User: Fold these one by one.
Assistant:
Number 1:
Amino acid sequence: MARNKRIDSIAEALKGYHTALDIGTDHGYVLKHALDQHYIKKGIASDLRKQPLEKAKTLLKNYPVDFYLTDGFLSIDKPFDVVVIAGMGSHTTIEIMKQRLDIQADFILMPHDHLHEIRTFLCEYGFVIDYEKIIEDRHFYTLFKVFRGKMTMSEKEIYTGYHVIKDDTYKKYIKMKMVHYQALVAKTHSEKQAFFKKIERYFMEELHDIHE
């Protein structure tokens, strides 16, 4: 079984829930690990693509998992108390979440780009970030644990993170983002340069706050 820090961290975030709906389950590794570790009691695996879903069925044979070949929440008719959406872009993640803004389940998210957009969406559509955790697995990934409610955040938090677990991995991530924005400042001009300088300053301030 292919295991990595991302799968481990997502599965661990499911600890204490009863039934996890894994949207875009791919081969079903997250549900298998969560069930093997007794983090959850049951799983629901959904995917748009038939081939990965068939592989998930093979991997999860004899496990308490229901399978759906569907787009996001569409066709899901079983109860669940937590939803996993991982490995997709923020735009796709947001479109999936908009399918069922009525549900009260919690979410475990791991979008791979435009994190400021997912944070903005969560603020505007009645979600609260319980915590964010940075995972280093060749690249940096951000795990969000989210529930329904209201929150506000500053522009700085929209870009640097909200309720982030500030461990050594987060420090490495902040330093990487500073270098990234410094490079953008060096090769751009006018309004874009001013914007990138502002975001770079946010990450510098965050790093300073961590070291205090």
Number 2:
Amino acid sequence: MVTIVGVGPGSRKFMPLYALEKIQNAKVLVGGRRHLEEFKDVPCKKIVIDASLDFKELLQSDEEIVILASGDPLLYGIAETVLKYVDKEKVEIISGISSVQYMCAKIKISMRDLPVLSLHGREEDFIEKLRQHKKIALFTDDIRTPQYIAQKLKENGFKNVKIFVGENLSYDEEMIYEFELEELVRFNKKFELNVVVVACGNM
């Protein structure tokens, strides 16, 4: 049996009780280093997801495992990969609060008709989506950064936009920034783990 637990934006205080119970009772806990560090008090075997891990082999073992997933496992999350190797009947998915949900609550922007795209290791036509919907949420990576997004918007003629960057959401180091387009293009900072929301006009 494989249980995938969405740990939400990061801090355990935003997780439902049922998810916490699953983690506390786990025999094998699998996740990124940051997630495992959050649950270092759980007395069980821990496996870090990194380049050396044979994930397919792990999933096909007889061990009952609990996988810690960022945000919601079904929103650009690890659940899709797990379901390639494990029968649906043997998988339980516990949804978590996505970082986009958390961010929108912080900046008071409705998620109604909000496209959510991931630029993490991929290209997406977020320009056209923004033209259609007037707002968009984006997962980033070390190449497609908030500044990269701002530069692309500038190159495509956008002017009256607000760009919100949420960094280290839910952790003690959380920072939420609000930028004008040109301001972010010139902003000289390497953001840590972050999500971006772009809104056109007054929203």
Number 3:
Amino acid sequence: MARQLTFDWPVGVSLEASDFFVSEANQAAFRMVGDPARWPQGKLLLTGPEGSGKSHLARVFAGARRAPIVGLSGLGARPSETALVVEDVDRMTPAQEEPLFHLHNHMIALGLPLLMTARTRPVTWGMRLPDLASRMQATVPVQIAPPDDALLEAVLMKLFADRQVRPPAALPRYLATRIDRSYSAAQGIVEALDRRALLTGKSVSLRMAADILQEDSFDDR
């Protein structure tokens, strides 16, 4: 039987506030991000692994505060006059350290909230600018923890929805009890199921999931 051609179409990820599922694993982060009055010096560092919802939660904050979201490449732009979100600060290059340092000072001087996201805490970043290192290490961190059962099921359902895949109702729980309890594992199995469905022309099913999980080529870690 001939297999269908498949293409890597962009996935339409929904980052609306109503799509953010709160559980014990991310409740502390959700509450802290939503209450800038509790941030010492108006700064907060939101940490968590890839796929944990950092960008989603940052966009919830940005929407509520009408705050721009900038990447590291935008740090040298016109100083913000509102709350601000800077994503992936742990990926900064040495050349981006000084602009981030000046941004810290600018936001503190104006009393504006500064939310930053990163995969890890500053102690692991290897910053070369001592003044920035001290400011980052003094910034209060809040972590999105590894997913609990409820959150892992919700993450799986959202990943399917982002790909416009309608799985059987029992599939998210079935997968949650069989893959590693991590955001990357959830992404991996949903991607594998979506691709298998496109290749075979069949709907995503429990049987398809069982077959993929048993294959040596599937690595959910």
